Amino acid sequence: MLHAQSFPSTAAPPRRASPRAGFALPIVVAALGASLLVTAWLLHRAGLHVALWSRSNLPFALAGVCLFGLRSGMVLRRWRHADGLRDGAGYYAVFTLIALTGAVASYPLAALTQGYADATLHRADVALGFDWLGWYRTVAAHRPLQWLGVAAYESIYLTPALLLGWFAAHGQRIAAHRFLASFWLAAVLTLALFTQMPAIGPLSYLWRGAVDYMPVSETWQSNLIPALRARTVHVIDLGALRGLVSAPSFHAAAGTLYLRTIWRTPPLRRLGWLVAAMLLATPVEGTHYLTDMLIGAVVALVAAQIVDACLPEVRT
């Protein structure tokens, strides 16, 4: 069990100790608002719209109502955990909106792309000595590796939930705001680079014949991107979003940000094993080239450095 008191030098400061503690969050919210406007424009340009009233959106609506209730103070004000609940609700709401906006934006961006970068990405993998097919065959031949890989790959949302929950519980607003700002910027940079290197992924590009093992991400790029380009897809269902971004790997970008944040927060360093497992599962379960992942890691580091440079108030 993790205990903050085991690390006296990183003990949570008293709440409201710094007048600048909440300085970064309005900037992140404003940036997110701008992203929503740009996404709406991209959807219009690509002839797409979001099915807001789909039944599959109900979980998002219920979560939104709960988070709004907590954030607006609909909890016992005198309860000692009230501040943490309000902060956590805000963090989770912003993180979820960033993730959803990025996933939705990938659809119109994919529709506006041309060609594929798989040949270049594969050549880069060969130059690095990475055998994707060998990695895939190993996983396909061992069911335990498949179970572990799926669980680790899906932890992309578990790790930030734990991070943001810990920040909220310990009053670490500065660290939470910095993390959210870096996550948003990494998503923006990933999508921008995606337009320059769309890909169908190594499973669709390299494998021939019947698929021995279908990873979590399946082969949606090879089917959905051509349909989006042909304008035969017009509706996006939030409850059935598919991963379209092969390069850069956003799992790798997110994992790099998680590790960076965990390293700066000693009580949470044990979570590093969970992130490492996610990254190991990403080539197969995410059908990513190693080159995708390296580019994603660089994107995350650049985003974090920009946030530190532009928002010095959020440095710890």
Describe this structure in words.
The structure is a single chain. The protein is mostly helical. It has one domain. The protein is 62% helix and 1% strand. The chain is built from 13 helices and two strands. It has helices at 24-46, 58-71, 82-111, 118-128, 132-140, 143-154, 158-169, 173-194, 202-206, 220-229, 250-263, 272-285, 290-310, and strands at 49-50, 235-236. The protein has a two-stranded parallel ribbon with strand order 1-2. Helix 2 (58-71) runs antiparallel to helix 3. The radius of gyration is 20 Å and the shape is globular. The protein starts with 23 loop residues before the first helix and ends in a 6-residue tail after the last helix. The model is unreliable at 1-22 (pLDDT under 50).
Low-confidence runs: 1-22
Strand order of the largest sheet: 1-2
Q: Which structural class matches the secondary elements? A: mainly alpha
Number of domains as seen in the coordinates? 1
* Inertia-based shape: globular
Task: Name its key features.
single chain, 316 residues, mainly alpha, two-stranded parallel sheet, 2 strands, disordered N terminus, Phosphatase PAP2 family protein, transmembrane helix, transmembrane, membrane
